[in-house]
């Protein structure tokens, strides 16, 4: 006989991973578009949670809609459905009063931070920066750029001026690996590069995306009254047992669902 604890609980809302769960590269995963449509039809609230940091939130939104998902625009305030780690970076920079981060980010991702980051002609040097931000940007994560980030973090410029303020290292996420968009092979995620800076500079990164509790709290809060009076649990669905279903998901007691698509390996 199946025990009660073995049964799926009543679900009042869903948090759904994007890359590897809803789509791989330019193609939706099987039945993903239809599944979101069904959730809308039966009235189950959901939010999409993406650690993708290769592009801005708006760029990802356009890409998903081009695949048939019909995701609501992020200009629609609390009704928005897509939440990203690069979007969370903007909030953290604002909260930390950082106005000139050194961004190890793609050009598209930098556009997300346009109101807090403005490129200057001397951005190649380790001077005047008040934070380092790391995302997935293969062409940007070079030795020279990582070395500049290291120098910013250890405060070489500030120490010369007699200042020793700790420079924050902000990571969109610390994924060890990702599913390649172009094939079925795995590729290095930003975690290895974040770890190298942590080790060399003797700092601990502030991770703003999944699986941090703060990210999940932010997304869950956005449901507002839509789920406050509903019974049941909030479920999180993803293809990465650590970066989708770990840490914050465990702390918050979310019902965790691992799918066998994307980066999932037995």
UniProtKB/TrEMBL annotation:
Any one GO molecular function term: phosphatase activity
Domain of life, source organism: Eukaryota
Name listed for the protein in its UniProt record: Haloacid dehalogenase-like hydrolase domain-containing protein 2
Pfam name, any one: Hydrolase_like
GO CC terms of this entry: cytoplasm
Organism: Amanita muscaria (strain Koide BX008)
PANTHER family to which the protein is assigned, alphabetical: 4-NITROPHENYLPHOSPHATASE-RELATED, HALOACID DEHALOGENASE-LIKE HYDROLASE DOMAIN-CONTAINING PROTEIN 2
